[in-house]
Amino acid sequence: MLKIALYLSMLFQLGATIYAISLIRRTRYNVSWILISSGFVLMAIRRLFDFSSLFWESKLFQQEEINSWIGVLISVLLFIGVIFIKKIFNLQDHIEQLRLDNEKKTLAAVIEAEDKARQAFARELHDGLGPVLSSIKMCLSAIDPDSMEQPNRRIIERSCLATDEAITSLKEISNLLSPHILENYGLIKAIKATANPLLEGTQIQFEINSNISDRRFHRNLEINVYRIVCELINNSVTHADPRYIRVDIVEEQQVILLTYKDDGSGFDLDNHLQDKVIPGMGLENIFSRIKLLKGQYQINTSPDSGFIITLKIPVE
């Protein structure tokens, strides 16, 4: 049994040695792997010495010191190899960091391109369609309704009302695409100005509390926090049917703490995350923007228990 065990052990040792040597090229001749492979080679030779002693009265080498020195050399090679192998792990960490940085850069580029497209579209609407509607309104206003018959007068009045509604809608759409009020007046006023049209015609009570007042931050932070809050409000109105919505934005020690809460229908977060299905694709955009800002978030929700999300975003 001992002979069979040693024979199998020798085969396994030789197989491990050959496989280790074959990987040297794939490691780009890394020093640590070469040392470890050398240790495997010596271990295989030592195992051959042990195996030979069972079949021949005289060993391949008479000197016992040689076998002992091989053991010492194996220990030294493995020790040095393990020390050098740390470079492999450092390289892996470096590659992972590069991957994360590239992922963030890609995400930032996508969001920036999206915002630029929105700005361009809003500018075309405002500068292109806006003057046309204003010209139509001026032409209609120049008409003297007293010189017309009653049916024509009603048509002109309705045309004026329709033009006013079109101009108002154009301003709202332009503001949603590219919030000029955000650039001019800051985050809190921009959120209020955008929330009012979204909640108009509903019974939802909206409340926003903040200690930042008119303080300005860098544009990337402002535009993304603004988009996050608007997306959350839109999700609540569209999917949750709440009675109230509350937004708290507080700055503490160079960190913005944002808490969004509604008393709507909520949902089973665990099941949705497990199935990778989240109500409203807007939440995926929210998570992407939070990641871009190097922020953290925590969601508390369950069916018929409302929705709460807390964000921590560093002010850089």
What does this structure look like?
With about 325 residues, the protein is an alpha+beta fold. It is built from ten helices and five strands. It has helices at about 1-20, 30-50, 65-85, 85-140, 150-175, 180-185, 185-200, 220-240, 270-275, 280-290; strands spanning about 205-210, 245-250, 255-260, 295-300, 305-315. A five-stranded mixed sheet has the order 1-2-3-5-4, covered by helices on one side. Helix 8 links the parallel strand 1 and strand 2. Residues about 275-280 have low confidence and may be disordered.
**End-to-end Cα distance:** 70 Å
Number of helices: 10
Fraction in helix: 55-70%
Q: How much is the radius of gyration in Å?
A: 36 Å
- Could you name the ranges where pLDDT drops below 50 across 5 or more consecutive residues? 276-281
List the helices and strands and how they pair.
Elements (H helix, E strand, L loop, with lengths): L1 H21 L8 H22 L11 H21 L1 H57 L7 H28 L2 H6 L1 H13 L5 E6 L8 H22 L3 E9 L2 E8 L6 H6 L7 H11 L3 E6 L5 E8 L2
Parallel strand pairs: 1-2
Antiparallel strand pairs: 2-3, 3-5, 4-5
Helix pairs in contact: 1-2, 2-3, 4-5, 4-10, 7-8, 8-10
List keywords for this structure.
316 residues; 5 strands; alpha+beta
